[in-house]
Amino acid sequence: KAGVTQTPRYLIKTRGQQVTLSCSPISGHRSVSWYQQTPGQGLQFLFEYFSETQRNKGNFPGRFSGRQFSNSRSEMNVSTLELGDSALYLCASSRTGTGDGYTFGSGTRLTVV
Amino acid sequence: GDSVTQMEGPVTLSEEAFLTINCTYTATGYPSLFWYVQYPGEGLQLLLKATKADDKGSNKGFEATYRKETTSFHLEKGSVQVSDSAVYFCALSPDRTGNQFYFGTGTSLTVIP
User: Fold this and answer.
1) How crowded is residue A70: how many other Cβ atoms within 10 Å of its Cβ?
2) pLDDT tens across B1-14, in order?
3) CA B19 – CA B70 distance, rounded (Å)
4) CB-nearest partner of A107 from B34, B43, B101
5) Residues of B at the A interface (Cβ-Cβ below 8 Å)?
6) Which residues of A37-69 are buried (b: 16+ CB within 10 A; e: fewer)?
7) At a CB cut-off of 8 Å and minimum separation 6, what does A61 contact?
8) Which of A41, A43, A89 to substitute to test the interface with B, most B CBs within 10 Å?
9) Which of A75, B22, B41, B61 sees the fewest Cβ atoms within 10 Å?
10) In a 3-state reduction of DSSP, which class is residue A84?
11) In terms of Cα–Cα distance, which of B91, B85, B65 is closest to B9?
């Protein structure tokens, strides 16, 4: 079966721009989480959606937002990009988010110049 | 707050050597514990999990036991292979819903023939 698909794989943006990243979860999975991975901070939780509702949010500024559609696909948006937003953004999906572990996508590598 | 402390890397071992990667956690409730593995250029893959004290998770020759008394979840493998070279992450989910993970900083393992 198809895994978690993230698009695009690589992205280069200029400081001050905004960006939208996309995540298609495994078919039947309704929980989607987003993480930011950087060498300095490691993996940090951004937010989690279940059935189009944000259930949990990490400690990130309001420039980071997300949403989930009725087909469980999710997008995250970062506005007014800063150099420090350069990172690997990972999306993960789970059937219900009930402790059975998440399946991660390969990530979107965002570089802000 | 909840957190995971993981053994610093990098770790370099010869093929067939014994592997231990230490992981300790801090949590106020009854967390679930996970080990994830990340191969170069890929997303994270669930390696094993344990959802309550004294549970042992195992997969592909790797094992970890949930020790509440020592708040630990150390990863072990009796005989590593070159194909085990990857970055290993210990993770905690604060409750049984599992919709938010706290990750350790990751331990890079290189196995040489």
Assistant:
1) 7
2) 889 999 888 999 99
3) 20
4) B43
5) 32, 34, 36, 41-46, 49, 51, 89, 93, 96-106
6) beeeebbbbbbbbbeeeeebebebeeebbbebe
7) none
8) A43
9) B41
10) helix
11) B85
* Residue B54 identity: D
Instruction: Look up residue A88 and give its amino acid.
Output: L
Q: Residue A22 is encoded by which pair of tokens?
A: 């996309």
Rounded to a whole number, what is the distance in Å from the CA of A30 to chain B's nearest CA? Answer: 11
**Chain A neighbors of B101, CB-CB under 8 A:** 33, 35, 43, 45, 102
- Structure-block tokens of residue A60: 């990130």
Q: Look at chain A and count its residues.
A: 113
Q: Which residue of B has its CA nearest to A89?
A: B43
Instruction: Give A42-101 pLDDT, tens digit per residue.
Output: 899 999 999 999 988 999 999 999 999 999 999 999 999 999 999 999 999 988 776 667
Name the residue type at position B36.
Y
Residue of A nearest to B99 (CA): A97
**Partner-chain contact B96 A99, CB within 8 Å:** yes
The amino acid at A64 = F
